[in-house]
Amino acid sequence: MVLIDRRFWSLRGMHVKVQELVEYSIATYKELAAIIERALVNRAVHATSTRRETKYGNLVLRLRLDQRRKMHNKELCRSSTITIIEAAGSELATLAEDPDSNDQWALAAKQFNESLLALEGCLRAWAAQSEKNEATTVSEEENQNTQITGVSKPSKARVPFEDSVLTKLLQKALGLNAYVYMIATIAPEDTSYRTTLRTLQFAEVAKVGVVTVKRNEIFFNDLQKDLKTDIEASKKKLESLQKEERSDDVKKSVEVTKALIKEYEKRMARLKEPLNERMQATELFIQSITSTFGEEGDKKRLPHLSNLSMDPMASDRILHFVFNGDVTVGNDKDNTAVLVGPGIEPIHAVLSRAPSGNIQIEPVSRTAKLLINGHTISKRTELKNNDRILFGSRHVYVYRNPKEEPRTVHFADEPDINYWSAFEEIISNNGIVFSTDNTLEAGVLNRRMLEVLPQIGEANVMAEELEKDVKYDVQLVTPEMQGRLDGQTEIFVSVFHTRYNQRFEWTLRTFEMRLLAMRKLYRRGEQGQNIDVPECADPFFENTDADVRIGTARLYLQPLMYFVRVRENLEVVNFRGEPVGFVETELVPCNDYGDEYTEEDNVFIDNPSELVGKNLSFLVKIHCCKNLPKGYTAIYCCYALFPGDERVSTERVSGSTDPEFGHERFFSFKPANESLLAQLADSYAAVHVMGRQATVELAVIRANKEQIARQKMQNDLMQQTNALMEGFRINGREVDPTKQSVIVELLLMKKQQARQSQKIENLRRLVQSAEQHRHKRVPTSAIRDLLLVSSAEAAEEVISKLDVYESELSKASSLCSIQ
Q1: Of residues 297 and 572, which shows the higher confidence score?
Q2: Predicted confidence (pLDDT) per residue in 293-310, tens digit
């Protein structure tokens, strides 16, 4: 039972009564197990007033052991209570900050989060109270022989149990007279870093608290007197309230008082009720459970469907036995097995006994989505033991027939069939191949794919049922395609507007938030409410005026280390590794005032280490883009030199697939250090070409879209996407991430070779000129000046001054002889 949809009242002695929560007297483990099984079923999929399909909830199991005996002619009861809490995880908020008052699911999600905050607040207050008591104890020990006057005892910290129903119910179990243990479950993925950290911080609080336990003893006579007193006091209060004016507050107080009187009288009757009568009530409840869900022994002898859930604790909780008559499955309440959610029809499928004696299943209509072992079924099919069945988009069951010989499970490397293996089978049979690399990154990527693909399928089913012209698909994006040097391949969701022929990319976080809003809108449609919302506010669609990434190019910064000017056309590649055009860029070394260096300035350096401690200034120019795809407007480029830097954007240009930007930005580093040089040597600036898609409606839209999407998905999920700087494949095409880097290296080598060739040519001309003038010796100063120049004109000027150098021979000590 979900506590948030129940009212509660505080009773004497910190007892709390929650409406419709029932206690059962048990005598055997079998009875206890049956009640727990029923509770787990309720928590797994049972409908409540707030959540039609409860997957998570605050599960509270309270087991009280009573020991009764006679003492001084009175009946004494000693009791001990074990309270087990499985707290719900925090619920993701929807797109709206304040949930709709008519959306009970959104209100429930909000109250789940509030109950967790209240529980944490109680633990923190309890820990603070324990620390204060410990400090007080130490102070008393230090001053036990000293008389202290005028000092009051420290007040106890208030523990806010009243902040939620959950904490109010657990008031007696949270440290006041109980031992507290906490087990925290965390996720290893880097995407769950924040929630993992919050969970560990939450658990850290429970370690601080100190408990003081004592016996729980009470005489039944005293308890009966207290209950009589409470009943009389409540009746007097009710009489006085009924005499007052009937305001809303008074009406509420009257209702609460009547409920308290009823509860007190119920407790009094329970004290007087013989134990055998209470046990009979428990037996009737156990029988009702057995008639609905079957006994544990039935699972070993009768064919049945058993549910599979993402949460292993919620798997194999719902059993549908198939032995007498047909079993109908659908969202109609008259069906034998009632399933709700996207893709489930009023009567979805029928299970019956075939003439051969085996159980067979048949979809009722052509539109009913039914998969067996990952294959779509459109006709009557006999079931075999351990067959995996998918109803709609997310209801997974496994067929068990104990009479059949156990056969080999489809997945030999898995000991049991579970939710994930069933969906992996479905995905594999649709042509998607998972990575077989035995690496942590590949394992995380595969698991995330298993989680995301069923959600994408659910979103597509909801979009189709609500007649939304949109299709969702998975998109793998490598770090290189995002302009990053390292990292892991990320999963994006591709959003295709079939009406406008537009495609957008969502991050997983964006998709998860949108999916919550989609479910909310879908539930409103099921309830017959108005679901007409503007397309700009529709969670199924992206804003048609949103900027999209046309593609990314890599601008390598290595030439700046040598003061080399580089102008080139960089290839623009989209998320799928397809070339979509070119962007013309230029790196220009300059002085501190932005004046560009030319070849005549002779600023080229051979060793970048010479830059350490000197100023480094340069210009980044983006001239234009060429051959971009049609259908884009307001095109611009943006880039950041290094990770963490603020992005620089060009002006927007519309009306052309070859936009001219004329962008220029000055950068200066004063001075350059080794860290900067290392970044320039190993990194590149990712130039993202952005734009808006033109909204041109298409006359013909739906031509085999599913087959095209499946083929594109298979192409996008090639497994070499994580090979950084070693080449990878996308769409069957070899993409070399070092291509542009190699071009830059070749450019620098060509520049260096040309300079070395020029120096050799200068020396040759020097020797030739010396021989013509019969100079047998040449000063090293002439050779030094000749090596420093970079042009033929400057070298000719040095050679023409050979006579001047000759006059210095008598003064110079360093000479070079020409034989």
Answers
A1: 572
A2: 555 567 777 888 888 887
- Identify whether the C-beta of residue 377 lies closer than 8 Å to the C-beta of residue 370: yes
pLDDT digits 0-9 by tens, 614-659: 889 999 999 999 999 988 999 999 999 888 788 999 999 998 889 9
Q: For 335, how many CA atoms within 13 A lie in the half-sphere containing its CB?
A: 21
Q: What kind and span of H or E run contains 43?
A: helix 29-45
| Dihedral sign for Cα atoms in the order 164, 166, 172, 177 | negative
Half-sphere exposure of 504 (CA within 13 A, CB side): 23
H helices present in 773-812, as ranges: 780-788, 792-800, 802-807
Residue keyed to tokens 């908020």 = 93
Q: What is the DSSP string of 103-132?
A: -HHHHHHHHHHHHHHHHHHHHHHHHHHHHH
List residues bridging with 556 in a β-sheet: 684
Q: Using DSSP, state whether 809 is helix, strand or coil.
A: coil
Cα–Cα distance measured from residue 65 to residue 336, given in angstroms and rounded to the nearest whole number: 39
Among 61, 71, 74, 75, which Cα is nearest to 26's? 61
Yes or no: say if 188 and 440 are a contact pair by the CB < 8 Å rule. no
Placement of tokens 């179990």 in the chain: 173
User: Strand 579-590 and strand 616-626: pairing?
Assistant: antiparallel
DSSP notation for 244-301: S---HHHHHHHHHHHHHHHHHHHHHHHHHS-HHHHHHHHHHHHHHHHHHH--GGGGGT
Q: Beta strand 327-330 with 337-338: parallel, antiparallel or unpaired?
A: parallel
Give yes or no for a contact between 599 and 790, defined as CB atoms under 8 angstroms apart. Answer: yes
**CA angle in degrees (0–180, nearest 5) for 8-12-15:** 50
- Judge whether 146 and 124 are in contact, CB under 8 Å: no
Tell me the two tokens of residue 160.
């806010």
Residue with tokens 């109950």: 115
The reported pLDDT for the residue numbered 33 is 78
Neighbours of 752 (CB within 10 A): 14
Cα 756 to the center of its chain, rounded Å: 56
Q: E strands, 384-524, where?
A: 388-391, 395-400, 470-477, 490-497, 502-507
Report the Cα 817 to chain-centroid distance in Å.
Answer: 76
Distance CA 637, CA 659 (A): 10
Q: What percent of the chain is modeled with pLDDT above 90?
A: 11
**C-alpha span between 722 and 479 (Å, rounded):** 8
Name all contacts of 672-677 with Cβ < 8 Å and 24+ positions apart: 672/611, 672/612, 672/613, 672/614, 672/615, 672/616, 673/612, 673/613, 674/612, 676/616, 677/561, 677/608, 677/609, 677/611, 677/612
Helix (H, G, I), strand (E, B) or coil at 615: coil
Q: What is the pLDDT of residues 221-258, one digit of tens each?
A: 766 777 777 777 777 777 777 777 667 677 767 776 77
Q: Are 195 and 146 in contact (CB under 8 A)?
A: no
161 touches 168 (CB < 8 A): yes
pTM beyond 0.90, yes or no: no
CB half-sphere exposure, 630, CA atoms < 13 A: 1
User: What is the DSSP secondary-structure string of 643-665?
Assistant: TTSPPEE---B-S-SS-EEEEEE
CA 190-472-361 angle, 5° bins: 100
Asked whether 587 and 617 are in contact (CB, 8 A), the reply is no
pLDDT at 793: 72
Strand partners, 360: 352, 382
| Block residue for tokens 């699972």 | 299
Residue 679's contacts (CB-CB under 8 Å, 6 or more residues apart) are: 557, 642
In the predicted structure, residue 689 carries a pLDDT above the cut 90: yes
Strand partners, 473: 494
Q: Is the pLDDT of residue 200 over 80?
A: yes
